[in-house]
Recover the amino acids of this structure.
């Protein structure tokens, strides 16, 4: 999904040439997989990738201090539990940096992150319920097929205002306006979304 997330980010910011990728090195399998997938996709798109590591809150702050000095065109936040736990910190730092960013789960867009692309957790929970129901009715877990969620979600921060689907032109327009307003100094994610929607309604 990291390659697809990078593709969606590139669609949102077509002028991007350099993308920072934030990973959690204490989970090496996940970090290596993220970097490998992003680097492969970036080569195909002609993008330069800058890999950044953060293992705790202080290191996240340090990463953003360095990004403020050497600002990338966009940011790809790896999908890891640390980043989910530090989501408010990440979304606020990204807003201050005024750089478009993509995240791995809906949780980030629910708190003001620009965009997420990832597994539809509601669908995953539904599948767990179906499996549990089958087991409770006597099915042997070993006999049940393994299913992977095939319903990824693409969400923009305007979700609470009805802007959910990336294929909706209004979502893309709002996302682009959010980036423009952030570049001129606005940092509050809710205010950014409201300003973009107000601009579109003129």
């Amino acid at each position: 999904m990291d390659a697809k997330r990078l593709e969606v980010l590139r669609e949102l910011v077509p002028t991007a040439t350099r993308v920072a990728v934030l990973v959690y090195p204490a989970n090496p399998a996940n970090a290596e997989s993220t970097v490998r997938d992003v680097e492969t996709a970036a080569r195909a798109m002609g993008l330069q990738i800058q890999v950044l590591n953060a293992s705790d809150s202080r290191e996240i702050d340090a990463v953003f201090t360095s990004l403020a000095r050497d600002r990338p065109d966009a940011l790809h936040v790896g999908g890891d539990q640390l980043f989910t736990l530090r989501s408010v910190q990440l979304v606020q730092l990204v807003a201050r940096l005024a750089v478009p960013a993509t995240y791995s789960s809906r949780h980030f867009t629910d708190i003001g992150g620009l965009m997420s692309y990832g597994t539809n957790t509601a669908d995953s929970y539904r599948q767990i319920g179906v499996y549990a129901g089958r087991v409770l009715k006597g099915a042997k877990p070993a006999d049940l097929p393994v299913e992977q969620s095939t319903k990824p979600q693409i969400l923009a921060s305007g979700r609470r205002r009805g802007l959910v689907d990336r294929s909706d032109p209004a979502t893309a327009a709002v996302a682009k306006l959010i980036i423009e307003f952030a570049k001129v100094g606005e940092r509050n994610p809710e205010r950014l979304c409201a300003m973009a929607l107000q601009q579109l309604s003129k």
About this structure: Residues 120-150 form one domain. The first strand starts at residue 18 and ends at 23. Confidence is low (pLDDT under 50) at residues 154-166. Residues 28-45 form the longest helix (18 residues).
